[in-house]
Specification:
2 copies of one chain form a homodimer. With 396 residues, chain A is α/β, with parallel strands linked by helices. Chain A contains 13 helices and 13 strands. Chain A has a 7-stranded mixed sheet with strand order 1-9-8-7-4-2-3, sandwiched between helices. A 4-stranded antiparallel sheet of chain A has the order 10-11-13-12. In chain A, strands 5-6 form a two-stranded antiparallel ribbon. Chain A starts with 15 loop residues before the first helix and ends in a 9-residue tail after the last helix. At the A-B interface, helix 3, helix 4, helix 9, helix 11 and strand 12 of A face helix 3, helix 4, helix 9, helix 11 and strand 12 of B.
């Protein structure tokens, strides 16, 4: 198998710098020097989450772990919560809420759309007794490539004068798409190491507001591994309540350095540009449809692409993998067999993406889908060429 | 800082082979090839746990995560459980039980001793209504270097005809000290990646019996991230309920290969030999006392060493770290300042250990402790020499 990049929406391609940074011997996580590694990481994570007043916790775990940490620390069994479901991951978060005993109001939205702001506004307005304790929103639904308007959710809460906490799944957005924890009044911000942080899987990353920390003092869900209290007590001195995933902390140090060297806003702009090229390939080049039904939902980290009626997206994936050594994201649950997904987040270049677009073209043509050879690459590459950083090009 | 090995009782020194094995690019954890990595790992872990009928689950997490997984999947709030506490880690597990709402019978035992078999036998015999649902035992208390007799706990259960499940913390024993999940009827066997598995921190490893799986079907503790049910459904095909820590899986593949190339029983014998050398240094060389009060409690993975009355073990640790670049384990909680610990588990050689023993001698002498220079090294090295594999040595 050749060393092709992967085009799944996470884990993303780990930069060589980060891989080298993680190749370290083990050390004592209780040593006097350990906080020199950890304390600056905690501060820099706050810059990525755009919070000055909150905290960011790191657990050995996955995004699912961060979901669970957010819920079990701040809510009590029987609490009423509001969530909307429009893809595999918003569904799974809703399922986790049920399993932890919450009284869940789940709004089922067409897959391809995002958080229904008017419905949220209406329900929050009607909830004059403030029975709803938590409002849940998936900023970027990885299954469909849909980005929702979190500022809009905050506005719905504020307009209703509603005190519920705001929980945001930013697993496939934070570090790639603008996220403003303080400005949007996000109380729990869920992320993981394997997306915008350009790291291997293994770290759950959770932003927590002061309001959430206060809520944790009276919330009665049982928890221990994910306890905020234990984290707060030990993190303040640069330590952890149990052995942390040390190699990943070194990788995170390096990936944070890369993010700030490039500039966080530049990282977002790059993600937008990479994504827009892929969308040009899909829509203008291939004449296919994205799962995201309208431009306002387009995700800058992942595009879910419908294969034409009568074709099986699983066959595209299988051929791409077996014949060309390429991994795209599969369609999950309701859209299994209908879509395949191109991840364009983390450290990925236009040149790598053009290879991925070309591979998708080949696999689609192999099963008889009528896309023109080179059409996606042409559409994307023209866009990339037009938007590349200007440098002097000799006329002759 | 020189590249000294660490002498803490985990994380242990990661062998070069394992470090190289983990330096891999990310891949699709849903690809058709992924089970070729994972399914043999599941089988080989069962060989390490010595179970044919049980399963071994891997979570992104730590030992604490595996503790929580064991408890929340198999018990219900209010269940009566029996635990004995004789060190930081058995205390913390007991604390976790309280936090998850269990009705905990906690037997406080002198630190330096292990599971009190007679007390367990008596309590289990008296519990004729079988109200106790879980019996908890720490096979190796890392804080004091005490190994308990798990076969003895099983015998106490059997003699009483008691059906409670048996929960064993084997974090710092499994893969280093003999552990027999099936033979001893262990239902939940807790471990982590960073001890006998010679890996970085980041994986919770949990052995689960069929009886435990059946119990999980009616246990009512809320859980999602650690759910056995989700693991069983996805593991059977070589996948996971959420993104696994892929790099660590590659490291685990390599470390399992190393364990089986050496032979599991040889690994145990090597640990015993390394440990015995350290004990000779402590007792015969330095004339100091181990925290373990009797030879039957001696741990083959970690030795906790009392500094003489009037001296501060923290000073030994500080000097060792700052002056000689050495990390030993600190005394925790009740024995803070009184003991320091030498970890001798995972991939560590007699030569490395002799360096660690020499460094401890120097640091102790630096603060005025009356140990003779070279005395520990002499006692340990004579033992290592006598027990080294026989090879031809020229007479002249």
């Amino acid at each position: 198998m050749f060393d092709n990049p992967i085009f799944i929406p996470g884990p993303t391609n780990v930069p060589e710098r980060v891989r080298r940074a993680m190749n370290v011997p083990m050390e004592d996580q209780r040593s006097p020097n350990f906080p020199k590694l950890t304390l600056p990481i905690f501060e820099d994570l706050k810059r990525v989450f755009k919070t000055e007043t909150g905290k960011v916790f790191l657990y050995p775990g996955s995004g699912t772990g961060a979901w669970e940490a957010a819920v079990t620390n701040t809510l009590s069994p029987g609490d009423k919560v509001l969530i909307s479901r429009f893809g595999q991951f918003s569904h799974l978060w809703g399922d986790l809420l049920v399993r932890h005993g919450m009284d869940v109001i789940a709004l089922d939205v067409e897959w391809g759309e995002g958080v229904p702001l008017e419905d949220y506004a209406r329900i929050l307005n009607e909830d004059s007794n403030h029975e709803i304790k938590g409002v849940f929103a998936c900023q970027n639904e990885t299954a469909t490539g849909v980005t929702s308007d979190i500022a809009g959710v905050r506005k719905a809460l504020d307009d209703a004068g509603h005190p519920a906490m705001l929980y945001v799944d930013g697993v496939s957005s934070i570090g790639s798409i603008d996220f403003r924890m303080d400005e949007w009044g996000v109380d729990l911000a869920v992320s993981g190491s394997q997306k915008g942080f350009m790291m291997p899987t293994g770290l759950a990353v959770l932003g927590v507001s002061q309001k959430a920390i206060e809520a944790s003092e009276s919330a009665t869900c049982n928890r221990c591994f994910f306890s905020f209290d234990d984290m707060i007590k030990t993190n303040k001195d640069g330590y952890f309540p149990y052995t942390p995933a040390t190699t990943l902390l070194y990788g995170l140090r390096e990936s944070l350095d890369m993010i700030f060297e490039e500039g966080l806003e530049n990282v977002f702009a790059r993600h937008h540009r990479m994504a827009e090229g892929v969308r040009r390939a899909v829509i203008d080049g291939w004449g296919l449809k994205l799962a995201a039904t309208e431009p306002k939902w387009y995700s800058d980290t992942v595009s879910a692409i419908y294969v034409p009626e009568g074709f099986d997206a699983v066959a595209v994936l299988r051929i791409a993998y077996e014949r060309y050594g390429l991994s795209y994201g599969a369609g999950l649950s309701k859209v299994a067999g209908k879509v395949f997904r191109i991840g364009h987040l983390g450290r990925i270049s236009e040149i790598q993406l053009l290879g991925g677009i070309a591979g998708a073209e080949m696999a689609m043509r192999d099963i008889g889908i009528d896309v023109q050879a080179g059409s996606g690459v042409a559409a994307a590459s023209e866009y990339y060429r037009q938007t590349a950083a200007p440098i002097a090009i000799a006329a002759e």
